[in-house]
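Students often ask why inverse folding is considered easier than folding. One informal answer: many sequences map to the same fold, so there is more than one right answer. In these notes we will look at a single instance of the problem. The structure comes first.
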């Protein structure tokens, strides 16, 4: 199994000169890639390639773990089992995910499952939960069930706030309702939407959450992809937030996995 012993010391390995430029040259179809690498224990930025870390952005499905916790706040942290029928239920996976528990819904980022949670969660409960995690949304935001699933631009957060929120999530692993969400993020790295990360760091575990959101760049693309990687899962040392212009969250996980592998000296 790989260890992270070198990763913090090798923050510059992930710098644009070492990784992004060669990849851009090799894959000219990738016009913009941004990332933020943070040390978990000190919350110090190790490396970053982002135009503005404080500019709020729509984050797509990265909101889902917090929607789940807000649901749990008023449902004794008992998450339902739900059958996703795919397009018929508004899920991104046409054939559907089938019967799901919360960890599987997180791993597969199932829209239909989280829509069920969102419709039973008051917007002010979600806003309070987000604020408790250091993620302050605009108080004037119109928070609909669709926004709680990750659609639209009603909920926006700065990259630095997203990293803080996920760091807080990991730090609260022992609190009610958090463990199955983290288990879902672990499954995501193995078999879910973030499985490209698991493939890149073979033999190691990570927490991964992907998201696909409205494009925030010019020229406009169909979407921007996001991937959060917290590594290693057992004793988190770093968190990586990656954004890829014109890509889905699952496609961005491919790039995030390569970034983590580069930090580990695997490239």
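Output (designed amino acids):
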């Amino acid at each position: 199994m790989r260890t992270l012993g070198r990763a913090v010391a090798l923050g510059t390995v992930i710098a644009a000169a070492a990784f992004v430029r060669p990849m851009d040259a090799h894959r000219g179809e990738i016009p913009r890639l941004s990332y933020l690498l943070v040390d978990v224990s000190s919350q110090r930025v190790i490396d970053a390639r982002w135009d503005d870390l404080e500019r709020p952005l729509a984050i797509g499905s990265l909101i889902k773990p917090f929607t789940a916790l807000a649901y749990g706040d008023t449902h004794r942290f008992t998450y339902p089992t739900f059958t996703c029928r795919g397009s018929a239920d508004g899920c991104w996976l046409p054939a559907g995910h089938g019967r799901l528990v919360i960890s599987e819904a997180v791993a597969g980022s199932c829209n239909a499952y989280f829509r069920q949670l969102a419709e039973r969660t008051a917007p002010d409960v979600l806003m309070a939960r987000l604020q408790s995690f250091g993620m302050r949304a605009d108080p004037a935001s119109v928070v609909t069930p669709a926004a709680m699933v990750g659609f639209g631009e009603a909920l926006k957060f700065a990259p630095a706030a997203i990293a803080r929120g996920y760091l807080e999530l990991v730090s609260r692993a022992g609190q009610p309702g958090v463990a199955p969400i983290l288990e879902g993020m672990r499954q995501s790295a193995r078999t879910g939407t973030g499985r490209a990360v698991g493939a890149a760091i073979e033999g190691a575990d990570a927490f991964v959450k992907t998201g696909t959101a409205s494009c925030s760049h010019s020229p406009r693309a169909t979407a921007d992809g996001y991937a959060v990687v917290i590594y290693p899962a057992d004793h988190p040392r770093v968190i990586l937030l990656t954004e890829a212009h014109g890509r889905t969250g699952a496609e961005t996980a491919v790039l995030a996995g390569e970034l983590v592998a580069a930090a580990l000296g695997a490239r």
